[in-house]
Specification:
Blueprint lengths: L2 H15 L1 H33 L11 E2 L4 E2 L6 E3 L2 E2 L1 H36 L11 H20 L5 H5 L13
Antiparallel strand pairs: 1-4, 2-3
Helix pairs in contact: 2-3
């Protein structure tokens, strides 16, 4: 095998073994199984509740926009323009139920668990890194001190630079 092929296969192996790909695969499998549960809840609980008001199958709810002809035996529209709003309602209910179950059974408990874990961690006593404004203020003060020192003839470059490098000073003519 050539070097390029080996590099491509190594890159592909690295891609597959990354945590994100594995987590995504698990999420897809769990999501597919969860979809069956949600569909069962919609068909077994929601549709009968809606069926108390009319048809148990939401797909039977439709509205005709033009003059439609119905089949005498089945009651289905045979021609004309009609909207199947029952199937849209069923999809919306399925989405809302799925979102509610995911939030209340997965997201909310996970957030509470993370909050408890964060509360158990000891507070860091390490000094906080200075902000950009604080760093810029220090640089400004060092430059002002350096300029004032160079006018009087003394060099404060090593003090202003913190010993990490040399700062070239210029003397101004007055």
């Amino acid at each position: 095998m050539s070097e390029k092929t080996t590099g491509v296969l190594a890159g592909f192996k690295e891609f597959l073994l990354r945590g994100n790909v594995i987590e995504l695969a698990v999420a897809v499998v769990v999501g597919a199984a969860f979809t069956n549960i949600v569909n069962a809840v919609v068909k077994g609980v929601i549709n009968p509740i809606v069926g108390a008001l009319g048809s148990q199958n939401l797909d039977h709810y439709k509205t005709c926009l033009t003059t439609c002809t119905t089949d005498a035996k089945t009651g289905d529209y045979t021609d004309g323009i009609y909207i199947l709003w029952g199937s849209v309602l069923s999809a919306v209910l399925t989405f809302v139920i799925t979102a509610a179950v995911v939030y209340f059974l997965m997201i909310l408990p996970m957030n509470k668990w993370k909050a408890r874990q964060d509360a158990k961690k000891p507070a860091d006593d390490a000094p906080v890194d200075p902000t950009e404004v604080e760093l810029l203020t220090e640089i400004r003060d060092a430059l002002v001190a350096q300029r004032n020192g160079s006018l009087s003839g003394s060099s404060t470059a090593s003090a202003a630079g913190g010993g990490s490098g040399s700062v070239v000073t210029q003397k101004t003519q007055q």
